[in-house]
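Annotated sample (chain length 395).
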Amino acid sequence: MSSMNEKGPILPSHQDGCHCYEEEGCKHNSVRTSQRRLCIRSFVSRFFQVLILCAALYGTFQWIDKKHVDSGKDVDSQQKIVDMNGFNSNVALTNDRNDAHLTYLCKGELTLPLKGDTNISIDASIFNRLEIKQRAETMKGYQVELANGKTTVRKSDDAATTTVTIKINGNDPELADIFWIEQNENPQDGRYEIVIHQEENFQIQNGCVSIDVDVVVPESNSLKSLRLMMASNKMLFLEGLDFADSLDISTANGDIEFEKGISSGRTNLRTANGRISGTLRNLYADLSFTTANGVANVRVEEISPSKEEKAASVALSGSTANGSIKLQLPSHFESQFSLTSFTGRRIVEVSEPKKLHINHWSWGSTKGYYGDSPAVKDRVSLTAANGNLDLLYNV
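Output written by the structure step:
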């Protein structure tokens, strides 16, 4: 096992007021002046890179704020997600975009069922693409706080069809009148859509609601595609699930966990306030995971792209504004890599040291490739504004 630390320092050394690398040494007086100029230019360049990174992450989570429950009807003029400071904090919905206060309306467990459980049975032989979205709207002067809920996806040998159970609990029986569930079927492309609506015309003060969703499939590969977009839910995937085409998961406030191992095609995982952790037994296409406030720990055991994906190359990317990232990849997966972190360490660890090549190494940035040829097409990119980065080719 070898790591990038053996080839040089993670951060440049400082000699004669200049950022330089130990392997170059800054030994010659004749180049010191030009190196100082280069250092100044490098500092300015990195400063603007930090600004660009922060702007990009801000834009990403503004998107979650505005559209975290649906890509169809926007709710950006209706609501704002408040309280992004703790993994277990609740989310309040309000239509006042100048309202930045923190609210804690939900206290204790919510045990009052609203309208009872909603059980939806889906014919798995017809529908293999499932979308579950949450839309929430508010009236001016009123708000509903979303307590932490949980969305679970699991396989059951006893299930004959795909079933979705939605449980909505609250602190006021009048809240039952503002929630309703829409179902849309499209047998032509095998798509089944479930939308959890929150009515916009209500006058309930200090309302508190939790939404739990349980998805049960009869076979591990019953769903080729799954899309979940929730506001304040932990996303939990149990063992043995296989989403051949795509997996798209978004939550504004909650963890995304697949610790027991799943397989998937094109995979997008996004949370504004939570951690992302788990194992991908087999990855068939690109992978992207993003968290603004939280750590990411992802292990990929095998990468088997389709012929089309293999021809176009596979891209793996992870980013966080405040947290660390650890990405483990198969030792036989060769790729370009880029690590960018301005306040944390950057480590590349490999099982075959002769395949590790560093092309660029400076403050905040490390680039190179792992493999036998610099022309390798697959790419890995990890970015952290404030946190450590660990890339390991050792699975």
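Annotation: The two ends are 11 Å apart (CA to CA).
Annotation: Residues 5-45, 55-104 have pLDDT under 50 and may be disordered.
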